[in-house]
Design a protein that fits this description.
Keywords: Cytoplasm, Ribonucleoprotein, Ribosomal protein
GO molecular function: RNA binding; structural constituent of ribosome
Radius of gyration: 25 Å
GO cellular component, one term: cytosol
Protein name: 30S ribosomal protein S13, chloroplastic
Order of helices and strands: HEEHHHHH
Number of domains: 3
Strand order of the largest sheet: 1-2
CATH topology of the largest domain: Helicase, Ruva Protein, domain 3
Distance between the termini: 52 Å
Main location: cytoplasm
Helix content: 40-55%
Length: about 180
């Protein structure tokens, strides 16, 4: 028991030293006046302590590969933290995310390809993505497609077996006779 206590004590001290070193490194790069800990971009709060590429993936509809491409098109250093970005860099990132085709991002890279209504290729973000998904499911339900019916009933949609798994939410069990 005594040995385990001393090991955890040393580990705790090491963790504190590492945390302090991270704070020093962060403050050595910029003074705390310019650093933003939380950014508000496209109706999403972004953690300023993360690297830029991973920070903007917190915006719904922006994945890691799309984020990487957007930052390269915006000429933003990938090693920067999100809180270190200037207002001009944030504006460039937002315009590229909202209008990716104007910046020669290929159609196959976008998350909404050949829209059902107008056949356009677009990159949907945040609330627009939620709305479009809900609209697609409503359309499938209205035309009574198999996928729409399965969604409506709360069952698996993509052909999975449902005999033994996915029983949550339903009444299950057999009562044993007393005798």
């Amino acid at each position: 028991k005594g040995c385990a206590v001393s090991r955890s004590g040393r580990g705790e001290k090491r963790r504190r030293v590492l945390r302090r070193a991270k704070r020093v490194k962060m403050s050595a790069v910029m003074d705390s006046g310019e650093f933003q800990h939380i950014l508000r971009v496209l109706n999403t709060n972004i953690d300023g302590r993360q690297k830029v590429m991973f920070a903007i993936t917190s915006i719904k509809g922006v994945g890691r590969r799309f984020a990487n491409l957007v930052l390269k098109k915006a000429d933003v250093d990938l090693s920067k933290r999100a809180g270190e970005l200037s207002n001009e860099e944030i504006d460039r990132i937002v315009t590229i995310i909202q209008n990716p085709q104007q910046f020669k991002i290929p159609d196959w890279f976008l998350n909404r390809q050949k829209n059902f209504k107008d056949g356009k290729y677009t990159q949907l973000i945040a609330n627009a993505l939620d709305f479009q998904l809900r609209e697609d499911l409503d359309r499938l339900r209205k035309i009574r497609a198999h996928r729409g019916i399965r969604h409506y009933m709360g069952l698996r949609v993509r052909g999975q077996h449902t005999k033994t798994t996915g029983r949550r939410g339903k009444t299950v069990g057999v009562s044993k006779k007393k005798g």
